[in-house]
Amino acid sequence: MATITPFLWFDDQAEQAMNFYLSVFAEARVLNVNRYPAGAPLPEGTLMTASFELNGLAFVALNGGPMFSFNQAISFVINCESQQEVDDYWEKLSAEGQPGQCGWLTDRFGVPWQIAPTALGRLLSDPDPGKAARVMQAMLRMSKIDIATLERAAADA
Fold this sequence. Notes:
By secondary structure, this protein is α/β, with parallel strands linked by helices. Helix content is 32%, strand content 27%. The protein contains five helices and eight strands, in the order βαββββαβββααα. It has helices spanning 14-24, 83-94, 118-124, 129-140, 147-155, and strands spanning 7-10, 28-35, 47-54, 57-63, 76-80, 98-99, 104-106, 112-117. Helix 4 runs antiparallel to helix 5 (147-155). The mean pLDDT is 96.
């Protein structure tokens, strides 16, 4: 069966980004590294491509030059079971990056992420439309998602 692998194009920071992501995720490993040879577009020995795995998902990173950059049209969602997980990923990935709204952030390499507690989906899909609406309004006021605040919003009548 064919697999789908996210491919991340960096100007010249692919190795730094890969090493950063390997430090953020507990289940992470390098799969393969290829370096530019002499006469290539980047200096000899510079990382060309690297394959790595984060929590079971394979990625490929390329140092391809400044032609392309990341934007918010595509992001990576981390589904978190606890506030501790939300806080941990938020702190690590937003360091030197840019926090956004509703659980979104851009890391220091420009890659967009969503740090999403699984409780958010459960609360937003509550069969009581009033609860779901209160949760939505609470979420829209947040940068990093706070599960306790969402649960209080759902409980308020």
